[in-house]
Amino acid sequence: MKETLTNTRILLVDDNPLNLLLIRKLIIKWGGQVDTADNGEKAVELSRISAANQLPYQAIIMDLQMPVMDGATACQLIRQFDPTVAILASSATALPQEELDASGFTGSVVKPFESAQLHNQLLSLLS
Question: Helices 17-29 and 115-126 meet at what angle, rounded to 10?
Fold first, then answer.
């Protein structure tokens, strides 16, 4: 299993500015490189640009309920051009595995979560 997030490119997507700030700080503390988006439409665009520039994200943490475009729709669109990126659904409630699979998510984390839980889940997805 990978033990560090050093040089790992992660896209963090959430419409809550406080969530973006806190999770971004954690990922940077763990050595990751973070870009942020506040809705699914922006996430799709950032992912598309990164993939086109040969610098795809290795992981995406995606809130499910957002304005403009929800996380499930964004995940399905990202899968069309980047089928291998690890996409972690982030939600206040646990979702059935079938629903996560149908949308293309690699895993999920329920908010609020312990920082160690998110760290371990990211390391596991990236190994």
Answer: 60
Other Cβ atoms within 10 Å of 75 Cβ, number: 27
**Nearest CA to 15 among 75, 73, 63?**
63
Confidence class of residue 2 from pLDDT cuts 50, 70 and 90?
low
- The CA–CA distances, whole Å, from 61 to 99, 101 equal 17, 15
Chain-centre distance of CA 48, in angstroms?
14
Nearest CA among 1, 7, 14, 11 for reference residue 111: 14
Enumerate long-range contacts of 19-28, CB under 8 Å, 24 or more apart. 19/63, 19/111, 23/61, 23/118, 26/115, 26/118, 26/119, 27/122
Contact (Cβ atoms closer than 8 angstroms) between residue 40 and residue 34:
no
What pTM value is reported for the model? 0.93
Coil, strand or helix at 2: coil
Model pLDDT, residue 74: 97
Task: Compute CA 103 distance to the chain's CA centroid, rounded to the nearest angstrom.
Answer: 13
